[in-house]
Amino acid sequence: MRRSILLIMLLALMLAFGTTVFAQGEVAHVVQPGENLFRISLRYNVPMATIAARNNLSNWNLIFAGTVIYVPTSGTTTPTSPTPVPTTPTTPTTTEYIVKAGDTLSAIARQFNTTIQALAQLNNLVNPNLIYPGQKLLISGTSTTPTTPTTPTTPGTPVTGGFELGGQVFSFSYPSQMKGAGMTWAKSQVVYNQGDSPSIAQGAIDAAHSNGFKVLLSIKGHKEQIAANPTQYYQDFANFLAGVAALGPEGIEVWNEQNIDREWPTGQIGGGAYTQMLAAAYQSIKNANPNVLVISGAPAPTGFFGGCSGSGCDDAPFLQQMAQAGASQFMDCVGIHYNEGILSPTQSTGDPRGNGGHYTRYYSGMVNTYASVFPNKPLCFTELGYLSPEGYGPLPAGFEWAANTTAQEQAVWLAEAATLSKNSGRVRLMVVWNVDATEYGADPQAGYAIIRPDNTCNACVTLGAAMGGG
To answer: How far apart are CA 424 and CA 421, in angstroms?
Structure first.
């Protein structure tokens, strides 16, 4: 009885303080809030791969507070406290290195004949995968001539393939019509709140798969949570995406319209900041499931800001900032939205609205602009739609520009956009915005839906013909 009481007391201490129980050749460690596998490996001086193998961890980023992690050791040992991170160079041979686009911590470690663990500890990097161009890193060690850097690598292989069509769904009431339209993908949006389990995405994945579709999850969170602590949020979000990727979706879009203050904290909007999030997300997703198509969050197509300001960026300069920050190595496909057209996508002039020459008015203007910034990446339209009030009545304020678009024009223009995309050699995926929305209020989502109020779908017919070789 006394021995049982002692064991219970010892287990309680473990849970409260993260202390360890020692056995011959092994340590049991209780994961504390904020800990990751990298920090645990530093504490016990045991490689992450060894700990992951012992605990059958397929995703190194996905461990949870309160979990017991078994750490193999050479025998009875005492864990070391984490070494304090110096804030200034501690030896004459400590140097400063400025991270360049394309750098990874492993490549920098090889270049300076050191280790990832040493660099991460010296620079207090909670996530060794999360570095960004322009960041200053301290390098400590002997004064040796750096070797020629090798080509940086990122986990996983970019997911490629021919053109495919999909639709954003709010339910799966019309799977046969979607298939008749030639759609093989279904897109759903998932909103993440810090602390959420990846299982919140399971329903959308199961719904798509059970209806015979690949699933694209557009995943975003809350801008207020980013503002509180961006670095920690990027890591938490990346860990969440890794858990979602392990559930088996075919594609993940990382955030949504992050160039405007509706979706990103005011004063923090910029392509460089978003690329930090994207870099962490991409590597976590690929570590968990290399077969997931990773799409960068599509910016809002706009010329409203005349460049960039605290409340937003036009999409073109935002994309250029992303490119300068090295975003091309952290995506399989460039996300793009086009949902304010009032002309056939075959036209590149003639928009009657003000600023009618702006590239965002035209399908070709959008494709050419995005492809010029990322010439070696395919484009993925995660929203492409035409708004028609037919069958619903007057459009709300702010959407009057689409008052004259008919449902038949919507159907024809979607088919033309699919044909142009299929034949372009630049577009990997086109997701129609949308299939079956019913809201027609301040945001007239139903006006974009291809299932019209009388339950007909002319666009299903025109798209089916286009995807059948038209």
So the answer is: 5
Q: For residue range 382-409, what is the model confidence (pLDDT) as tens digits?
A: 999 999 999 999 999 999 999 999 999 9
Q: Using alpha carbons only, how large is the chain's radius of gyration in Å? A: 25
Same domain, 145 and 172: no
Last residue in a domain, options 44, 72, 100: 72
Identify the CA nearest to 355 among candidates 395, 309, 399, 305. Answer: 305
Residues β-bridged to residue 72? 26
Q: Looking at the structure, do residues 125 and 264 belong to the same domain, yes or no?
A: no
Total domains, the chain:
3
Helices 271-288 and 315-324, packing angle to 10 deg: 60
Q: Are 331 and 278 in contact (CB under 8 A)?
A: yes
Same domain, 200 and 105: no
Residue 428, domain member (yes or no)? yes
326 vs 103: CA distance, rounded Å: 9
Dist CA 223 CA 203 (whole Å): 24
Q: What is the pLDDT of residues 166-181, one digit of tens each?
A: 999 999 999 999 999 9
Write down the residue that tokens 């484009």 correspond to. 379
CB 329 within 8 A of CB 296: no
Closest CA to 268 of 311, 299, 232, 301: 311
Question: What is the β-pairing status of strands 379-384 and 334-338?
Answer: parallel
Mean pLDDT by 10 residues, the chain (470 residues): 47 47 70 72 75 74 74 56 39 70 69 76 69 75 38 46 94 96 98 96 97 98 96 96 97 98 96 97 96 98 95 97 97 97 97 94 98 97 98 96 98 98 97 98 97 97 86
Of 449, 448, 453, residue with least CA distance to 178 = 449
Q: What is the pTM of this model?
A: 0.69
Residue 423 has a CB neighbour count (10 Å cut-off) of 10
For residue 429, is it within any domain? yes
Residue-number span of the structural domain to which 142 is assigned: 85-153
For strand 312-313 and strand 164-168, is the pairing parallel, antiparallel, or unpaired?
Answer: unpaired
* Domain edge (last residue) among 132, 153, 174: 153
> Do residues 449 and 398 lie in contact, with contact meaning Cβ atoms separated by under 8 Å?
no
Residue 94 and residue 66 share a domain: no
CA distance 372 to 320: 10
| 305 Cβ contact partners less than 8 Å away, ≥ 6 residues apart | 311, 312, 313, 314
CATH code, 118:
3.10.350.10
